[in-house]
Amino acid sequence: MSIIQFRQTSKHFGALKVLDRVDLTIDEGEVVVLIGPSGSGKSTLLRCINGLETITGGDLIVDGLSVKGGARQLREIRQEAGMVFQQFNLFPQLTALENVAFGPRKVRGLSRAEAQETAIDLLDKVGLAEKANHYPAELSGGQQQRVAIARALAVKPKVMLFDEPTSALDPELKQEVLNVMRRLAAEGMTMVVVTHEMAFAKQVGTRLIFMEHGKIAVDGNPREVIDTPPNARLKDFLQHVE
Ligand code: ADP
Ligand code: MG
């Protein structure tokens, strides 16, 4: 079952072509790792999926709904596609618990008690139940990112989008976030992950996509593609990230 379909999707910022007639179908349960040089369009591709950017050509279908379908469809799409950013983006004035409970209350319309219960379960899932009443500033980067993952999961998305989720973290904190992502993948969550963590790509990814100039240059099995790069530019790119 496909959950995301890019159909000749383009995105321009003025004269700048950032996504160039992308065709890409992602099935439920896939863990797609997205790599490529800076500026190749990785973040934009993710942001189009949940409507943070509007596409300028072609179409993009998420869980059966077109991102061009209007405000109501877009709201639904945003609920189905949770996003985790490099810079965590937690609400600084809310505790970990309140950050996670926010979505279920606002988006899913849960009562305060129900939302809190959901939030506690999710904080427990990411190993942070004991930090429920801490504010973001009182948490390490790795802990903040795990709260951000719990917050994205709280609205029960069908797909999780990760944009360089460990790039702002010290090496020892990256692993705790990658472990949460590993567990999520093992549970069958559909994921699209922009990352430079090639070990993660090989272990967890079901598919690896290398982007260049707004196009998909390579699309294949992560182990095969990383161990035997089918094109010279990917080979060169991998030598610089590893
Ligand atoms: P990546 O994530 O692969 O580094 P991005 O998708 O962030 O690439 O950006 C692709 C290109 O689009 C870059 O040249 C970037 O400067 C440009 N870009 C991204 N967002 C905007 C924007 N809001 N306005 C204008 N240009 C943008
Ligand atoms: Mg980016």
From TrEMBL:
Domain of life: Bacteria
Sample GO molecular function, one term: ATP binding
PROSITE patterns per the UniProt record, alphabetical: ABC_TRANSPORTER_1, ABC_TRANSPORTER_2
InterPro entries per the UniProt record, alphabetical: AAA+_ATPase, ABC_ATPase_HisP-typ, ABC_transporter-like_ATP-bd, ABC_transporter-like_CS, MetN_ABC_transporter-like, P-loop_NTPase
Entry keyword set: ATP-binding, Nucleotide-binding, Transport
Positions of the ABC transporter domain: 4-238
PANTHER family per record: AMINO ACID IMPORT ATP-BINDING PROTEIN, GLUTAMINE TRANSPORT ATP-BINDING PROTEIN GLNQ
Recorded family membership: Belongs to the ABC transporter superfamily.
Protein name as it appears in the record: Amino acid ABC transporter ATP-binding protein (PAAT family)
